[in-house]
Amino acid sequence: MPQIGLPPYDDQNIFAKILRGQIPCRKVYEDEWVLAFQDINPQAPVHVLVIPREKYCSFADFSASASEAEIAGFFRAVGKIAKTLGLEDSGYRLLANMGADAHQEVPHFHLHMFGGRRLGPMLARQG
Ligand code: AMP
Predict the structure, then answer these.
(1) Pure H helices in 2-123
(2) Which of 6, 87, 77 is nearest to 35 (CA)?
(3) From CA 127, how far away is CA 3, in angstroms rounded?
(4) From ligand 1's centre to the CA of 88, what distance in Å?
(5) Active site residue 110
(6) What does the pLDDT look like over 23-58, one tens digit per residue?
(7) Domains contained in the chain, number
(8) 124 within some domain
(9) What's the CATH code of the domain at 96?
(10) Do the Cβ atoms of 49 and 108 come closer than 8 Å?
(11) Domain range for residue 18?
(12) pTM for the whole thing?
């Protein structure tokens, strides 16, 4: 069954706590729109998470509800972070998990940035 509407934002999710400074992170970049930090369980030599400062529980929520300034600020920051990390020449991958089929674990919208090696095919093959 398709879900009607979006779930309410959970203020106790781990990224909300990181944004409030209640738990630490290995910060890579921050500005008025985003915070970026190293993933605690990296899947590549570079594995950074970029999150908006405001409360969006998923990409669906962010894309529907964020202001144009927030969306532009977010994606401009993503590009800046990749460049600052030296990934532009070698390349990188961006990934957002949204909802159950994508196995989204943390209900605060985040973009994964992977790089630092050949990343292989886009999706793991199953079965
Ligand atoms: P997703 O499945 O897209 O929701 O990914 C959540 C990501 O958050 C995973 O890659 C986790 O390793 C990462 N993660 C969970 N807790 C932390 C934390 N405290 N600091 C940094 N990354 C985290």
Answers:
(1) 14-19, 59-65, 68-84
(2) 77
(3) 28
(4) 24
(5) yes
(6) 999 999 999 999 999 999 999 999 999 999 999 999
(7) 1
(8) no
(9) 3.30.428.10
(10) no
(11) 14-115
(12) 0.95
